[in-house]
Amino acid sequence: MSSRLHICLTCIRDRPLAAGESSLGRQLSDAVQQELARTGRVIELRTMHCLNGCRSPCNAAFRGAGKYSLRFSRLLPTDAPALLEFARYYAACADGMVPA
User: Fold this and answer.
1) Any idea what DSSP says for residue 38?
2) Which of 27, 28, 43, 61 is such that its CA lies 20 to 30 A from the CA of 12?
């Protein structure tokens, strides 16, 4: 059963960006892509313009057919390795309910 990691690119949407500055969501997405390249892992990564978690940015979500969708908030680019570790557990669960 396929699983996807979605990352909100517009987080933090209410914070103005300086010229050439990337949003925190973009930085998280870039960090995840760099971690994927470093480790050789393969996951389906999709970027989105909103995950409806604007009060607690930065947001990422795991989704899969027949699985519970799980959203994580208040993420930083340094959380990329942990997101990918969780992706491994999420992919292994038939229903998306990752055991503690």
Assistant:
1) H
2) 43
Domain residues for the domain of 65 are 3-14+22-92
CA 60 to chain centre: 3
Report the alpha-carbon distance of residue 72 to residue 19 in Å, rounded: 28
- Its pTM stands at 0.88
Phi, psi of 66 (to 5 degrees): 75, 10
In a domain, 79, yes or no: yes
pLDDT, average across residues 14-31: 87
Q: Is residue 46 part of a domain?
A: yes
Distance CA 33, CA 36 (A): 5
Number of domains in the chain: 1
